[in-house]
Amino acid sequence: MSSDIPCCGTTFSLYVVIIIALVAFAGLMAGLTLGLMSLGLVDLEVLIKSGRPQDRINAGKIFPVVKNQHLLLCTLLIGNSMAMEALPIFLDKIVPPWLAILLSVTLILVFGEIMPQAVCTRYGLKVGAIMAPFVRVLLVLFFPISYPISKVLDWMLGKGHGVLLRRAELKTFVNFHGNEAGKGGDLTTDETSIITGALELTEKTAKDAMTPISNAFSLELDTPLNLETLNTIMSVGHSRVPVYFRNPTHIIGLILVKNLLAVDARKEVPLRKMSMRKIPRVSETMPLYDILNEFQKGHSHIAVVYKDLDEQEQSPETSENGIERRKNKKTKDELFKDSCRKPKAQFEVSEKEVFKIETGDAKSGKSENGEEQQGSGKTSLLAAPAKKRHRGCSFCILDIENTPIPDFPTNEEVVGVITMEDVIEELLQEEILDETDEYVNIHNRIRVNMHASPENLPSVITSITQSSSGSTSPNQTSHMATPDSSPTTKPSNSSPTRKPSVSSPTREPSDSSHSMAPKHEESTQTL
Question: Which residues form the CBS domain?
Answer without folding.
Answer: 210-271, 274-334, 366-435
